[in-house]
Amino acid sequence: DGGITQSPKYLFRKEGQNVTLSCEQNLNHDAMYWYRQDPGQGLRLIYYSQIVNDFQKGDIAEGYSVSREKKESFPLTVTSAQKNPTAFYLCASSRSGASYEQYFGPGTRLTVT
Amino acid sequence: AQKITQTQPGMFVQEKEAVTLDCTYDTSDPSYGLFWYKQPSSGEMIFLIYQGSYDQQNATEGRYSLNFQKARKSANLVISASQLGDSAMYFCAMRATKAAGNKLTFGGGTRVLVKP
């Protein structure tokens, strides 16, 4: 079955530690995205990538980093510089083109204490 | 810049009745797409329906239809014959054709609770 996987589903970290969230897709999509969702809120774009080895900052990139070494993978690192990292993180992918919907993974709920 | 506004934070609907979720948008790009997603309590985002700005007819997908009024910049979602499984958060989103990276801009969402 084609789809997007994110692991782990729940993640707990101590303040000051970097943590990497995994996102893998087997849909052969060129574009991949990372969103952050806070309770009762909509999604905000962190980073996106339209092609391998290239990525751009979204609306709230500070304190986050990404890489895109393979088409299938787009890991997100939440660094210790992110002031309020506790949130629900969603990864998405899509075909290139404005009319194509984004497919989402199941999300990772990160709690930093 | 694009902006999506969903003014209804929450709604109750009786099972088997229809419900309309409001969405207004703002963009200076003449070419854009509008999307609706459903987010159950489990958290995943489920794509429901798409409307292109140049589409002549309103989009429909099963029990979902989109009431697209371009002049008013609104793209309301209509769910007919509500089911208990429709209880979820619903998000309206827009992608302007000229937006870098084909980015989606999301509204704040509307929570729907279907009553038996």
Outline the secondary-structure elements:
The complex is a heterodimer of chains A (113) and B (116).
Chain A (H helix, E strand, L loop, with lengths): L3 E4 L2 E4 L5 E7 L5 E7 L5 E9 L2 E4 L6 E3 L9 E3 L8 E8 L8 E2 L3 E5 L1
Parallel strand pairs in A: 2-11
Antiparallel strand pairs in A: 1-3, 3-8, 4-5, 4-9, 5-6, 7-8, 9-10, 9-11
Chain B lengths: L2 E3 L4 E5 L4 E3 L2 E3 L5 E8 L6 E7 L7 E2 L2 E6 L4 E6 L8 E9 L8 E2 L3 E6 L1
- Summed over residues and divided by their number, the pLDDT of chain B gives a mean of 94
Percent of sequence in beta strands of chain A: over 45%
Q: Write down the secondary-structure element order of chain A.
A: EEEEEEEEEEE
Poorly predicted runs of chain B: none
Output the structural class of chain A: mainly beta
**N-to-C span of chain A:** 36 Å
- The radius of gyration over CA of chain B amounts to 14 Å
Can you summarize this structure?
The complex is a heterodimer of chains A (113) and B (116). Chain A has strands at 4-7, 10-13, 19-25, 31-37, 43-51, 54-57, 64-66, 76-78, 87-94, 103-104, 108-112.
